[in-house]
């Protein structure tokens, strides 16, 4: 654990939000976050993706893609 309250994490999984991209994260109760949600805008829409903590070795700590979070209140945009 770092003394500055943050740590480096690298995200793998669904592209382009997590193509081995690195982010600075804050500790949660003094530990690595077990689950992280990242947001990115794709094709004019905000996409939220959930990542879970991978095997912890040394920084950057790896996170693996789990699922997309969809806005259930919106209407489906399905092309014909």
Task: Give an overview of the whole structure.
The chain is about 0% helix and about 50% strand. It is mainly beta. The protein has one domain (about 5-70). Strands 2-1-5-4-3 form a 5-stranded mixed beta sheet, with no helix packed on it. A hairpin with a 2-residue loop joins strand 3 and strand 4 (about 45-55). The protein is elongated and about 40 Å long. The mean pLDDT is about 80.
Could you give the topology of this structure?
Elements: E1 6-12, E2 19-26, E3 35-42, E4 45-53, E5 61-69
Parallel strand pairs: 1-5
Antiparallel strand pairs: 1-2, 3-4, 4-5
Q: What gyration radius follows from the Cα positions, in whole Å?
A: 15 Å
Main sheet properties? 5 strands, mixed
Biggest sheet: strand arrangement: 2-1-5-4-3
Low-confidence stretches: none
Compute the separation of the termini in Å: 51 Å
Query: Which structural class best describes the helix and strand composition?
Result: mainly beta
Helix content: under 10%
Number of helices: 0
Choose one word for the global shape. Answer: elongated
Q: Please, what is the average pLDDT? A: 81
Order of helices and strands: EEEEE
How many domains comprise the coordinates?
1
Annotation, overall tally of beta strands: 5
Share of β-strand residues: over 45%
């Amino acid at each position: 654990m770092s003394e500055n309250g943050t740590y480096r994490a690298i995200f793998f999984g669904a592209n382009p939000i997590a193509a081995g991209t690195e982010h600075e994260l804050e500790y949660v109760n003094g530990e690595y976050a077990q689950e992280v949600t990242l947001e990115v805008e794709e094709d004019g829409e905000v996409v939220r993706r959930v990542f879970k903590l991978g095997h912890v070795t040394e920084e950057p700590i790896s996170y693996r893609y789990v699922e997309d979070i969809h806005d259930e209140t919106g209407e489906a945009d399905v092309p014909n």
